[in-house]
Write the structure tokens for this entry.
Amino acid sequence: MDSLELFGDTLVLVTYHVHQTYENSPALQREAFYDTNLASPYVIFDGANIVVESNASMYETRYTEAYNVARTVTPLFNINVDSASASSSQGSFDLQIITADTIPDNEIHAFIAIGEDSLSAFNDTTGTMVFMYLCRELQEITLDLEYPDTLEQTIMFSHAIEVHKLSAVVFIQDMDTREVMQSTKIRF
């Protein structure tokens, strides 16, 4: 996944760990939402395309292929973020979601995933592992927008994350199709 960071302008990663050291309620909620019943690691591109690959040497090929397909979709929203700031216990940013086209008549939500990077954990089988882009908190906003509406809101949150490891991801998801329609990453 690291080499896909070359596409940082359009690639956003959020990881949820279940049945492991960093399991939390957002991870369990998202696992229940997707209900894949998959035991092995998997990646979901754009919320709808599940890619399962157990052979680590094939990750690069399989994930790059899926990512390139996801990049061909024209977004229906533009997300702007301004005034991102964080202290050792609080964070905030100004969020603007602009409709860019006619929106499907489905249930559309915006999610704000507060993340922590570079967390170590020990596993009896694999030894020490480092978890990246781990979701620690998940906020949700129901979007009731029609073209050409705009949502403007200040997002505030409390955290116990070292600021240099803190990030946030905003993603807009069609809850009926599970498609992630647009996303952006915020560094503090």
The chain is about 10% helix and 45% strand. The first strand starts at residue 42 and ends at 45.
